[in-house]
Amino acid sequence: MSEIPIATYFHIAIHTFVWKHNGMHTTESSQFIGTASPLPDEFRRNSVRKIIHVDMDMFYAAVEILDNPSLKNLPIVVGGSPTSRSVVCTASYAARKFGVRSAMACSVAQRLCPQAIFLPPRFERYQEISRKIREIFQRYTDKIEPLSLDEAYLDVTDSTLGLYASQIARHIKEDILRELGLTCSAGVGPNKLIAKIASDFKKPNGLVVVTPDQALEFMRPLTVRKIHGIGPATEARLAAVGIKTCADILAMSREELDQKLGRLGGWMWHAARGEDSRPVETHYDRKSFGREDTFEKDETDLGRIESRLKDLSESVCASMDKRGVKGRTITLKVKYFDFESITRSRTIKDMTVDPDIVMATAMDLLKTKTAVGQRPIRLIGVSLSHLDQTTPLILTQSRVESMSSTPSTSNS
Ligand SMILES: [Mg+2]
Questions:
Q1: CA nearest neighbour of 58 among 168, 193, 185
Q2: Contact, 318 vs 357, CB < 8 A?
Q3: 218 C-alpha to center of ligand 1: Å?
Q4: Cα-to-centroid distance, 189 and ligand 1 (Å)
Q5: 222, pLDDT greater than 60
Q6: Annotated catalytic residue 151
Q7: What mean pLDDT is predicted for residues 310-338?
Q8: Helix pair 355-369, 302-323: axis angle to 10 deg
Q9: 77 CA to middle of ligand 1, Å?
């Protein structure tokens, strides 16, 4: 094994360390675990968390190439037919060179890259491989939070394997390549925020380690869009107050941020510093999925409350859908202006992840079981519990159906 210096949280003066695989891999990972010297006690005593984010490289397209090697290096678009209204699930890197991106309409993808080969998604196959990837993760930790079929957070803080987090990430990359023939990118950091950005930093086949000491400097030059959860709408809102990068946030006082951004300011303040305390949540210790939101000022207007509830329902369902989880119990939470907080729940017959059903149920609870509209409220929330966790990685049928059922391999 060509030895590469391993960046650890306790080795000082290590720059953000990037390791690219170059297509080679070693085969001694299992021996390596057994022979590695135990970590010093202060490592385990330290409260700093070690989070790995693993993200498969162009996963659906990579699986298609795996099963049909003649597709290698060709511009592949996994999605519906270019003549349908469906969108791109995954584009191979060869297709991305033409500007093809995930979630883009397939018709647009074809215009950008006329020679693209359109392949129908085979979710069952992706799920099968996803389960094998999960089995590899489980060799190293059982604290796994899948974000989708090809992405997961791993918390290796309490690992007893005698390996640094960066070494575990490297073993996982090697195992996946050797056993499944696929590459992935991994980010290692003190929290989910940083690990996720780090895994995207040197795609494909990257390994980027960010130590707590490096967190601030790692974040500083990044555009806010790099922060998971910040989409185009928030990006525009931030740009309107002169924020494009984390450096822009670091230059502002907390008061200024709060004043300009309201509640978002607090989260941005921490994010720009690379701070994030969200735990890695495995499905089995997760009992519910929910979102809540505080109004800028106490609210009585039913229209505005309904619209907020709709956003929250959609957000909860999207988050569950991505993880392949459904729920049966819908809970509405209301906090009145005087801080009295109530919850009202209803359990429905079938498992759901449909935002319309969640919204309709929550609205019915709101109208029949609360004083919303008469008493001003300061906060509203919705959650789903009674979760179906038997098939955590199965994509919903609705998503499968949103793909074209008449896939083409057009090569016009
Ligand atoms: Mg991916």
A1: 185
A2: no
A3: 22
A4: 18
A5: yes
A6: yes
A7: 90
A8: 140
A9: 14
pLDDT, residue 308, reads: 95
Taking only the tens place, the pLDDT of each residue in 186-201 is 999 999 999 999 999 9
pLDDT surpasses 50 at 49: yes
* Helix, strand, or coil (residue 242): coil
- DSSP code for 154: E
According to CATH, what is the number of the domain 17-54+125-214?
3.30.70.270
Predicted confidence (pLDDT) at residue 46 exceeds the cutoff of 70 = no
Mean pLDDT in residue range 261-282: 91
Q: Check residues 257 and 37 and name the one with the higher pLDDT.
A: 257
- State in Å: Cα 251 to ligand 1 middle: 33
Cα–Cα distance, 84 to 356 (Å, whole number): 25
pTM of the model: 0.67
Classify domain 59-123 at the CATH topology level.
MutS, DNA mismatch repair protein, domain I (3.40.1170)
Contact 178, 206 (CB under 8 A): no
Reported as a single tens digit per residue, the pLDDT across 112-147 is 999 999 999 998 899 899 999 999 999 999 999 988
Q: How far apart are CA 72 and CA 61, in angstroms?
A: 10
Enumerate the domain spans of the chain.
17-54+125-214, 59-123, 220-272, 287-395
Beta-strand relationship, 76-79 and 117-119: parallel
In the prediction, which pLDDT does 231 show? 86
What token pair was written down for 129? 């491989």
Q: What CATH number is given for 287-395 in this structure?
A: 3.30.1490.100
Fold of 220-272: DNA polymerase; domain 1 (1.10.150)
Residue 11: pLDDT over 90: no
Q: What is the structure's pLDDT at 175?
A: 98
Active-site annotation holder among 151, 179, 255, 306: 151
Beta-carbon contacts of 277 under 8 Å, excluding residues fewer than 6 positions away, are 191
The neighbour count for residue 290, using CB atoms within 10 Å, is 17
Integer CA distances (angstroms), 141 to 7, 127, 152, 159, 163, in order: 20, 20, 12, 7, 12
Distance 311 CA to ligand 1 centre (A): 26
Cis amide linkage into residue 5, ω under 30° from 0: no
Return mean pLDDT, the chain.
83
